[in-house]
Amino acid sequence: MTISTDLWQFNQDLAQACLENPFVQGIGSGTLDRSKFAYYVGQDAFFLEAFARAYSIAAAKALDWEGFNTFHTLAGGVLKELTLHERYATEWGVDLRSVEPAMATRRYTDFLLATAWGSDVGLITAAMTPCMRLYAFLGQKLAQGGIPEHQYADWIRTYNDEEIEKLAQQLESLTDQYATLTTSVKSTYRYAMLCEQDFFQAAWDVES
């Protein structure tokens, strides 16, 4: 068992809660209200910009060249994801330049950036790994049995893609390399998972 595997296993309750969240289930079935998804697209784009910045800070703090390169590769993956969100934004009529972060979004991004600026690389990876692993998990679960052709099929295809799994594994390998299984690492990882759960719930709670 690796550190990243242990952390993921410790938080299976939250992973399952995210999968069962009505917002995520609505994506899976294609029945999610369009206004809720449009809200999510804007909030997630704001989040991903902070996520990319956190990768860059982690790269600057990496003591070895291999880690530096891997963090930058992961940041490139986020930039590709943002391109997808720009396409969604055009399709769903969302102006990404005017997005105001909601409380759940700001709580998550503030936590990520504070951890990135104020912590060592091991703790930074513990804060960032849950997002990558969770989205790969959700994409794979929603794609089981085949992806129905509905308005959210592209979202499922994106996060079920082998590239997302590869990026998640790369980040987990950095967690295994830099982190130790301390109370701080465990609590940081779990807090990020709680932020993910709150993020989906906030999108679901938006009035249609």
Automatic annotation (TrEMBL):
<dbReference type="InterPro" id="IPR050967">
    <property type="entry name" value="Thiamine_Salvage_TenA"/>
</dbReference>
<dbReference type="InterPro" id="IPR004305">
    <property type="entry name" value="Thiaminase-2/PQQC"/>
</dbReference>
<comment type="pathway">
    <text>Cofactor biosynthesis; thiamine diphosphate biosynthesis.</text>
</comment>
<feature type="domain" description="Thiaminase-2/PQQC">
    <location>
        <begin position="13"/>
        <end position="188"/>
    </location>
</feature>
<dbReference type="GO" id="GO:0005829">
    <property type="term" value="C:cytosol"/>
</dbReference>
<dbReference type="InterPro" id="IPR016084">
    <property type="entry name" value="Haem_Oase-like_multi-hlx"/>
</dbReference>
<protein>
    <submittedName>
        <fullName>TenA family protein</fullName>
    </submittedName>
</protein>
<dbReference type="Pfam" id="PF03070">
    <property type="entry name" value="TENA_THI-4"/>
</dbReference>
